């Protein structure tokens, strides 16, 4: 495999603890358009066959007038969008403190997200690792908010990642 250098660049995936700065905001791109097929497949695969997700005739009679995207799918997509910037080098996802669903998502909507670094600290029990906490916000193509959550991940310090040292 050729070495990076000159006009050759290696894509960065994830960050080490020292690269996170409280207050920094990462805009996660590209966005992701959610299709009707995505919604039906995810809903049925996860045994959530609520008719608002997979029965158009039923959903058209609701206050929304159309199917809603399963919130679990929206969360999974937004979380996935954050991986390259936030948890690509993580040892473990430590969990969520809160998940707020602030607006509906419909098939055909495109989701965008951003994460703000809230806190970083060295692990007290794992010398080569630390904890980063971020707040992620997701929006639709028109800028309207659809969700936000706070999560923490265990990430390596520089020189302590998988395959290093």
Tell me what the structure shows.
InterPro entries: HotDog_dom_sf, MaoC-like_dom, MCH/BMMD. This is Mesaconyl-CoA hydratase. Residues 22-134 form the MaoC-like domain. With 165 residues, the protein is an alpha+beta fold. It has one domain (17-156): Hotdog Thioesterase (Thiol Ester Dehydrase, Chain A), CATH 3.10.129. It contains four helices and five strands. It has a five-stranded antiparallel sheet with strand order 1-3-4-5-2, covered by helices on one side. A hairpin with a 4-residue loop joins strand 4 (129-140) and strand 5 (145-156).
Which secondary-structure class do the elements indicate?
A: alpha+beta
The count of β-strands is 5
What's the CATH H-level superfamily name? Hotdog Thioesterase
Tally of helical segments: 4
What radius of gyration results from the CA coordinates? 19 Å
CATH topology: Thiol Ester Dehydrase, Chain A
Give the rounded overall mean pLDDT: 93
Helix content: 10-25%
User: Unreliable runs, pLDDT <50, ≥5 residues?
Assistant: none
What is the overall shape? elongated
The percentage of residues in β strands lies in 25-35%
Q: Class in CATH?
A: Alpha Beta
Physical arrangement of strands within the biggest beta sheet: 1-3-4-5-2
As for the number of domains, it is: 1
Question: How would you spell out the order of helices and strands?
Answer: EHHHHEEEE
Query: Gap between N and C termini, in Å?
Result: 20 Å
Protein name: Mesaconyl-CoA hydratase
Pfam families: MaoC_dehydratas
Domain MaoC-like: 22-134
InterPro entries: HotDog_dom_sf, MaoC-like_dom, MCH/BMMD
